[in-house]
């Protein structure tokens, strides 16, 4: 087990996980910046432009079950190495699809790429396991803040390597992204990670875990946070292209969005400690709704930037809060099954919104794409209020 009694060693482990999260996230953020554009150029039906992203998110969802099995039987290190190998394979298959100009091959790259990204989502859970209870909110937020480095690495690679192997636009980018997973594997060799958890004599059925109000609220908050963010983010490069902006401009907006997603991680844990989980999740929901308001009022570079920055901060507050709330919904021996069930729901939603993003954008337009996020935010707030009411009722009954 990682030594949580030594503060220096504990923080070292958290920062190493931060680096792993940064490297694995760079591939996904780079893919967001170019995936819809490549899909638009390769697909005959332009409504399928976001299909590769949808497949990648579907694979991310499906990763939760095999990841849970590997984590439970072999520990975190083996699972994370498997995820890095998937990200490596995904980058290489994407590169092959671009080189051949084949939409089908390009879509196939989304499967191992999505599996790798799905497994990398468990770095935030590993952060909770290597930290003391008092440091846990900050550890989760700091590891998720690794996305700040991802926000720099991914889009910058896109901007500086997209023409590296002309006439194959973005081929050089995918070959450069393929260098990141091996570096992640090297870091995983030195970080202290928990072994496989002990197997309980009697396992709590997953459905029983999922019926708990804390689990239901955490899962829904995570689904709304990631689903609304992905719905808008996926089609942003397409909308900017249709408005006359170049690849560099859309990559910059995605980069600023990604920074906004992860930079608050340095303070979100402190905000949760000071103001409480529910207050931070509510603030994230309000910011997400604010994105829709800004997005429908104009299509200048400033409108795109402000909307996506609000969306990023809103995602961070809601998703970090949901992750911390999930940790209160299960016993230690239930953690792998609870986390896997949560991520199936969250990334199933993300897969649906990735595919729906292209279809809604093509059929209903940019304004409607943003407005449909508002009812989802209202639903999350309603369930959060219901869970708080249930908690007060339970305390009253106990008294």
From TrEMBL:
Residue span, Major facilitator superfamily (MFS) profile domain: 214-399
Superkingdom of the organism of origin: Bacteria
InterPro entries the record matches: MFS, MFS_dom, MFS_trans_sf
Keywords of this entry: Membrane, Transmembrane, Transmembrane helix
Entry keyword Transport: no
Residue ranges of the TM segments: 53-72, 79-97, 103-119, 139-158, 164-193, 214-233, 245-268, 280-298, 304-328, 340-362, 368-389
Family annotation (Gene3D superfamilies): MFS general substrate transporter like domains
Pfam families according to UniProt: MFS_1
PANTHER family reported in the protein's UniProt record: MAJOR FACILITATOR SUPERFAMILY PROTEIN (PTHR23534:SF1), MFS PERMEASE (PTHR23534)
Protein name, UniProt field: MFS transporter
């Amino acid at each position: 087990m990682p030594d949580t009694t030594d503060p220096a060693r504990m923080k070292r482990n958290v920062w190493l996980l931060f680096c792993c999260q940064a490297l694995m996230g760079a591939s996904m953020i780079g893919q967001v910046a170019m995936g819809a554009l490549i899909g638009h150029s390769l697909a005959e039906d332009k409504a399928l432009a976001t299909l590769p992203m949808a497949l990648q998110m579907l694979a991310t969802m499906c990763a939760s079950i095999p990841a849970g099995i590997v984590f439970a039987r072999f520990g975190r290190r083996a699972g994370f190495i498997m995820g890095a190998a998937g990200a490596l394979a995904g980058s290489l298959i994407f590169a092959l699809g671009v080189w051949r100009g084949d939409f089908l091959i390009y879509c196939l790259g989304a499967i191992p790429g999505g599996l790798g990204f799905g497994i990398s989502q468990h770095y935030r859970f590993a952060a909770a396991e290597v930290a003391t209870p008092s440091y846990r909110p900050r550890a989760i937020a700091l590891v998720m803040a690794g996305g700040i480095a991802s926000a720099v690495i991914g889009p910058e690679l896109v901007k500086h390597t997209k023409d590296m192997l002309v006439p194959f636009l973005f081929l050089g980018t995918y070959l450069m992204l393929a260098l990141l997973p091996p570096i992640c594997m090297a870091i995983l060799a030195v970080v202290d990670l928990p072994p496989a958890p002990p197997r309980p004599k009697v396992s709590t059925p997953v459905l029983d875990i999922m019926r708990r109000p804390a689990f239901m609220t955490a899962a829904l908050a995570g689904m709304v946070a990631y689903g609304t963010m992905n719905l808008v983010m996926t089609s942003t490069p397409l909308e900017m292209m249709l408005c006359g902006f170049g690849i560099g401009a859309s990559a910059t907006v995605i980069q600023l969005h990604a920074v906004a997603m992860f930079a608050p991680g340095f303070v979100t844990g402190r905000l949760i400690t000071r103001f409480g989980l529910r207050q931070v999740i509510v603030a994230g929901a309000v910011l997400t709704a604010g994105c829709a308001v800004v997005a429908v009022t104009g299509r200048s570079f400033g409108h795109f930037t402000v909307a996506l920055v609000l969306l990023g901060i809103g995602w961070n507050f809601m998703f970090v809060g949901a992750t911390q709330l999930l940790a209160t919904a299960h016993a230690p021996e239930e953690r792998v099954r609870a986390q896997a069930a949560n991520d199936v729901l969250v990334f199933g939603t993300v897969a649906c919104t990735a595919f729906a993003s292209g279809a809604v954008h093509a059929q209903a337009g940019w304004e409607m794409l943003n407005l449909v996020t508002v009812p989802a935010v209202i639903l999350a707030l309603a369930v959060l209020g219901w869970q708080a009411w249930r908690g007060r009722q339970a305390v009253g009954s106990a008294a």
